[in-house]
Write a structure and sequence with these properties.
This protein is of the alpha+beta class and about 130 residues long. The radius of gyration is 17 Å and the shape is elongated. Helix content is about 50%, strand content about 30%. A hairpin with a 2-residue loop joins β3 and β4.
Length: about 130
């Protein structure tokens, strides 16, 4: 799980990278494995910050972006959009299986949880090498 932070057109404050890391830690509650995390920040003329987040996860590739006058506002908006997209991708298989009965839904959820745990174990094993 790599984190790449790129700032273009301005100097990134020292605390910002740890803030970004803590924002990604909030996604642990969704049990989604991140394979790569890229955050690109740019200062446009007129003091407009653009933040783009691109991640590769166990539920697919997701991109989110936002532009605001303040860097922290742009980051918060981009992470909020990323969270909504993760929830959407994670819940989508369940929404399209309305004809399944409760037992089948429980089995499907157990299989999803087992595959997420297996992916997490692989990432942990790679990090321990």
């Amino acid at each position: 799980m790599t984190l790449k932070v790129i700032a273009k057109g301005f100097e990134l404050p020292d605390y910002m990278e740890s803030h970004i890391e803590s924002e990604f830690a909030k996604f642990d509650k969704f049990q989604v494995v991140f394979h790569s995390r890229n955050v690109f920040m740019k200062l446009e003329p007129g003091r407009q910050f653009i933040v783009e987040i691109a991640v590769k996860t166990s539920v697919g590739d997701i991109e989110a972006s936002a532009d605001e006058k303040e860097l922290s506002d742009a980051l918060n908006a981009a992470f909020a959009r990323l969270e909504r997209q993760i929830i959407k991708k994670k819940e989508k298989p369940l929404a399209h299986r309305s004809e399944l009965n409760e037992r089948d839904k429980e089995n499907f959820l157990k299989e999803e949880e087992a595959s997420a745990e297996a992916a997490a174990d692989i990432v942990i094993a790679e990090n321990n090498k």
